[in-house]
């Protein structure tokens, strides 16, 4: 284990580091050999209010992924409110916040230069998705309402508005996804709405949030979590994304109430995690339970399926690998603190954990062999990942590449 108690990340897992002036608050992004980071400071502007955040305008940086060499930087005219979204251009929301958004707008950046910007809005603004030449944005105040906010679409080529409609609170990339010609949006945290990408018109909605981290469609299926009524259990609900009809509902008598925390989906099995420490394998066709597995040591925090195995982490730091077909344990490891899956694919797993002030990141093969590990005392951003290669940022402005490059 490599431990770092200073400001600069160090240890055998660190491939390179670089530092910017100021802090890094958002998740870095790795794409096509470039690392994109928002943060730092510049002298372009300060907010008009003493209570506004951040205290000065910030930047967007592009670094070469192999060695951390800076390729360009964009000096924004305000704080950078979001991680970069890279999709035929680099997109960020810039502006200020003092509890209410101030002069927030979407900016497109190409090679470090501002290509266009939308009109500023005095609302909390979020970039929800970028797809097929369109950027989708939402506004939010308390994140709880299903009306009185705005959802709108702009062309990524020139920033011109395509449409704008009244909608519920939505301001995060986890709140929306585009599948075919439909935009699925979580509004007010409790309603999943299907809207036409052409004009934003509502096609259907469900008063249930997604059971996945963000809206995801699996062969026309959406998996949602029903609200609790009349002291009944919460349920995982499978619905037709195109028609809105319910295929099946699932709960199990293991706790009062049954409280699902998420799902992961394979070809024919839906793996359901439950607050009381259970994992269920459910037939994707009819919602019938095939098997159950107890994680034994606390609430599940995240789940991912890769190559026929579901990987589950818990609030007490354990990592479980379970066969999707049978529910049999394949291996188990532990980290200090509360653990969560950072990334999972055919190259392996990256697991993060938090134990008081210490942040830990470990990479494993799919068979459970540790590839590398890293620890840091102090705040880290969420990790940007490419396979088992990882980029992190620190509150003191360090950018570090972890793993084998």
Please identify the structural class as seen in this structure: mainly beta
SS strand fraction? over 45%
Q: Which sheet architecture does the biggest sheet show?
A: 5 strands, antiparallel
Q: Low-confidence runs (pLDDT<50, min 5 residues)? A: 1-6
End-to-end Cα distance: 19 Å
Q: What is the 3D form? A: globular
Annotation, overall tally of beta strands: 36
Helix count, per DSSP?
Answer: 0
Mean pLDDT rating:
94
The share of residues in helices is: under 10%
Radius of gyration over all CA atoms, rounded: 22 Å
Pfam family, one: PQQ_2
Protein name: Pyrrolo-quinoline quinone
InterPro entries: PQQ_b-propeller_rpt, PQQ_rpt_dom, Quinoprotein_ADH-like_sf, WD40/YVTN_repeat-like_dom_sf
Domain Pyrrolo-quinoline quinone repeat: 178-372
